[in-house]
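Here is an idea for our session: we take a single protein and study its fold together. To get us started, please write out a protein record for me. Once you have written the record down, we can walk along the chain together.
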Amino acid sequence: MSEKQYVIFRLGKEEYGVEIVNVKEICEYKESVKVPNTPRFVDGIINLRGDITPIINLKKRFNLPEGDVNSDTRIIVININNRQVGFIVDEASQVLRITEEDIEPAPELVAGIEKKYIIGVGKLADRIILLLDLEYILSEDEKEKIQNM
């Protein structure tokens, strides 16, 4: 019985998970500097320990209603194409172990590009957690634009 660890985070009332091995760090929210002519979901850039880090608003990327930033808001930092990228989430609450038996494939309702980054659905007691691969959140063109920021 194989299991993996996932960082669990919230966007609104929904829970999502990303494999912990892909997460470089989780930090408190920092206001970003806006960069002109970037995709709508790119909030801007921050200086994170000497590295200029593009910040992506996952709510905007997923076309979800935006909420206010509060003390629970976090930035999950991962590496994409050897570039550090941060993702704004409402809350990064915990790390959970999920066995392969408790993960179902992404629903057939999810079609097109979205299915690339939804790796499955975790079922834990009365919780459903959408498991994501944040590296595939961006198209190749979007990755290139962020690489050039």
